[in-house]
């Protein structure tokens, strides 16, 4: 049976790890910009862009799992909106500090290291910065890509989509109340069979994955949850092949430049596969995170997946810039630098992500949770507030990653 909403689900954390690893694999091509045989071969069969779809489904599940239950117990409209505002405050403290810090770092490095040029130009980066701060980066990317006017904040588009979801979900809960599940089914059916070419509006507004996550959260509170528990996955002989096949499907189904597309509505199919993985993870039965060492690694990556998702992109440009300054002028960077580039990139990503998690993300997340707790209780000042149903759920919401 699904655990209480305030407890972390290890299998969900493991899925976050897989989601960000997919993203990193997809972006290896930008590290090795001179071309690589293995990347080219991978592109013939797979696309790892679908890590974003998994992130979105996870986010829909984690947020709805605690938020909808909290809002459903609000005795009146005033309490309802006070809890909504507290939720938004937690989201701001959770998402904005890391997001704004690293997009600012990109803009600053673009100016400081302009002679190398890898961080992009100030004009384009400033437009990216404005889109990130206003949570409209997905709109921005659709407009700037055809004109080659995008800066270096590409990964922030999915973060804007999640922020838009955080804003709109409470309104959906208010207007639809206990019928919100029907609305989410409509959202899924309206998109799942659409053909969505990359970097079009339907592609950057793939809310079907988010809606599927919400539906899974609603289902998790129902009476059928225990009945459909896939307990056979407690046996690793079944669990490992099933999870591996589902991850393989996620990588092999999407449209991509060099690979053969499975179906025209592959984006919707990927969302369904992601939902199956989240469904399996929702039981917290160690069906995905298993084995002491693999589980430890996956949980570490999963807990820092938000930092890794944003910082790995910064680290790509930093790696290229470092080698540009280290090597003599006129050096041709080619396959001889593959291992050196990859090692520096991975090291920068791991170190900076850990520092960000400890020094920026975690302290401000806790500060936001404390402020939200007081708001939810209708209190003010610095006096600590007693726990409420909302504050009890804040741990799980605070760990929701944004791709």
Structure description:
- By secondary structure, the chain is mainly alpha-helical.
- It has one domain (10-398).
- 68% of the residues lie in helices and 0% in strands.
- The chain is built from 17 helices and no strands.
- It is globular.
- Mean pLDDT is 91; it is low at 1-5 and 381-403.
Order of helices and strands: HHHHHHHHHHHHHHHHH
What's the N-to-C terminus distance?
28 Å
How confident is the prediction overall: mean pLDDT?
91
Radius of gyration, taken over Cα atoms and rounded to an integer in Å = 21 Å
Question: How many helices in DSSP terms?
Answer: 17
Q: How many domain regions?
A: 1
Please state the overall shape, judged from the principal axes of the Cα atoms.
Answer: globular
**What percent strand?**
under 5%
Major sheet characteristics: none
Quaternary organization: single chain
Secondary structure tally: strands: 0
- Residue share in helices? 55-70%
Q: What class do helices, strands and sheet pairing give?
A: mainly alpha
Low-confidence runs: 1-5, 381-403
What is the topology?
Elements (H helix, E strand, L loop, with lengths): L9 H22 L5 H9 L5 H22 L4 H36 L9 H12 L3 H8 L11 H21 L3 H12 L9 H4 L2 H14 L15 H17 L13 H16 L10 H12 L1 H22 L11 H39 L12 H4 L1 H5 L5
Helix pairs in contact: 1-3, 1-12, 1-13, 1-14, 3-4, 3-7, 3-10, 3-12, 4-5, 4-7, 4-14, 4-15, 5-6, 6-7, 8-10, 10-12, 11-12, 14-15
